[in-house]
Amino acid sequence: MLEQRIQQHFIESADLKYQAAQTLTRPIADAIQAVLACVTSGGKVLACGNGGSAADAQHFSAEFVGRFERERPELGAIALTTDSSILTAIANDYAYEQVFAKQVRALGQSGDVLLVLSTSGNSANVIAAIEAAHARDMVVVALTGRGGGRLGALLRETDVHICVPHERTARIQEVHILVLHCICDGVDAQLLGDQEPNP
Question: What pTM did the predictor assign?
Answer without folding.
Answer: 0.96
